[in-house]
Amino acid sequence: MSLEVMAVTIHVRIFAGLAEAFQQSKLSLPKDLPMTVQELRKLLIDEYPAQKAALTSALIAVNQTYVPDETQIDIQDEVALIPPVGGGDSLPTCMISDAALSVDAAMQQLESVYHGGTVVFCGTVREFTKQRQTLKLTYEAYTDMALQQMRRIEDEIKAEYPRTSLLQWHRVGTLAPSEIAVICAAASPHRDDSFAAARILIERLKKEVPIWKKEFYADGDATWQPNEPADPV
Question: What are the start-end ranges of the E strands in the chain?
């Protein structure tokens, strides 16, 4: 049985920094319904490309409940775009960024009186790979899918370590040797969980998240390096 398609105007409530960026508290978009949350996010990014980073990292709530991307939106639903929740100038726990990454900012993001141990993995660009000098790396990501996969990894690790807070930040663009390419961190009441969760986090990010790098060498050669193949899930 096919679903009836109805052309309506979707009203999306927005808050805090997002509302300031858009200079309004509600966005109105004409669109056929029903549609999925993923389709709505793409529609918003297409309509407001200057706000792509904020729209990509924001959560979407339907009827006052956070929902996954495959959730269907219908005419009677209340839809809200939720920026990262937290005190101060908090950043999303899953982030693809063309700006420099900060270990201090990552530590502040995970700071809590409930945590007894925080483990931070910081991956940097090395100058030599198998005796070849690297001049720079260029990282490219399928951003929408990468963030979706990062959130899935976060949810699954938290299910195994429920009292652990996680963070995954990755750079895109061109990086020189010694620049930070990725930060993965885990914080929990006990150090064993922090060490275990942080190790799983970086290994799964490297295997499952669609991010690639191109290495530019001093001898003039350049090579794309794909992610490690992911195990079927």
Answer: 6-14, 26-33, 35-36, 59-62, 65-66, 72-73, 79-82, 94-97, 117-124, 128-129, 132-141, 165-171, 173-175, 180-188, 211-217, 222-225
